[in-house]
Design a protein that fits this description.
single chain; mainly beta; 2 domains; 4-stranded antiparallel sheet; 3 helices; 37 strands
Amino acid sequence: MISLLKKLFHWHLFLLIFLISIANTVNAQWVMVDTSGIPKCYTSDRKYIYAGFHGGFYHPEDTAAARNIIRSSDGGVTWENASNGLTSGNMYSLDVQSLCAVGNVVLAGTRNGIFVSSNHGDSWVQSNFNPLYGETFAFLVVDTLIFAGTDAVLWDIDSGGIFLSTNYGQSWVRSDSGLEEGNGSRRVKSFAKIGSTLFAGTYGDGVFYSTDMGKNWINPTNGGGKAYSLAVIDSTLFMGNSSGYPQRTFDMGNNWSVSDSGFSMYGVPYLAAADNILIAGTVLNGIYFSSNMGDYWKQTNEGLDSTNPSLSYGITSIAIINNYVFAGNGYGLWRRPLSEITSVEKLNPASPKEFELNQNYPNPFNPTTIISYHLSAASDINLKIYDILGREIIVLVNERQTAGEHSVRFSAKGGNGTNLPSGVYFYRLTANGYNAVKKMLLIR
């Protein structure tokens, strides 16, 4: 009898574990949390998460309440309207392209200028920002400085560019010396920051940087590229492109390489990064993520309605807030835990790489470490060390090498290096079009 009870107990325990595992599998997917419209942007303050929607113009004679900004106080589970006061003249500004928060102040970039709320979105007032400067697509907050990136109006070469506010969005001045009039450099779509260096992504003229808090901007690559979004992990900058694949730079924008392994279709305009995880939203193929600095990407569309791929897999926005990923598509606003996405499947390429750069050993190191790599064919090799600001420290290898395993010793004290201080460094290998970078830590 006791033996039978034990068997029944074990069977019920097994069944319970099995059912829990099935439930977890079923629940491991994207969940729609709002169907108000097409989400374009997000931000958060101490009280709410905010989402802005694309919606054109709303006329006062319409009876429906404008719902172009919504907010959530429970981490994105439920949402409420927060659009009161978003008016300009006799029409509502329903096309919200950008949001940002500075303390208790929230800013919204629309087709009709920039609006400011000092009461967590209860009401909005229009700032002293001329709508003819262009539609505001991006904000960057640096302490109490707020930068606004605008897209140039086609018929006005004086519009577009970068503007700065030092009084929480009440007034603005132009801050874009180096961005030329009448070309793609004034179509500013995105911002990023690495250390004290600011980056501005333009739609047609690549990525610019500023080392003097926006007074002057420089294009290190001299043009090219549609930098629709920018994301940062450590000192690596990633660029989302609406008509191509993501790109990345390890040297502050001087050199870019395509990061496309795992994508089945080009057009990846939206990028977000947190905790060494990259999330990408594509034009027609849904959502991808990478946990290895963009070396490889994995699709993660579980739960997205696939009855109309152009709506469900046409992503309109991506953001990571409070360890949750928020995504927009033609159906509405979706939410998913970041940890759930990264646990779907360990990232492994479908086939082994022809070239491979290994992690240095030991790591951390003091003062010497070994860097090894594999070549599947004879190649012209270039192996360099960079500091965290992207400055070149030393060229370790610059020669043609045979196929097979190779290694080189790097010393941070004399020899083939210099007397380097403790900190994070990067080593970069290029060979026959292959480009890889890894991080190492020197501890004195």
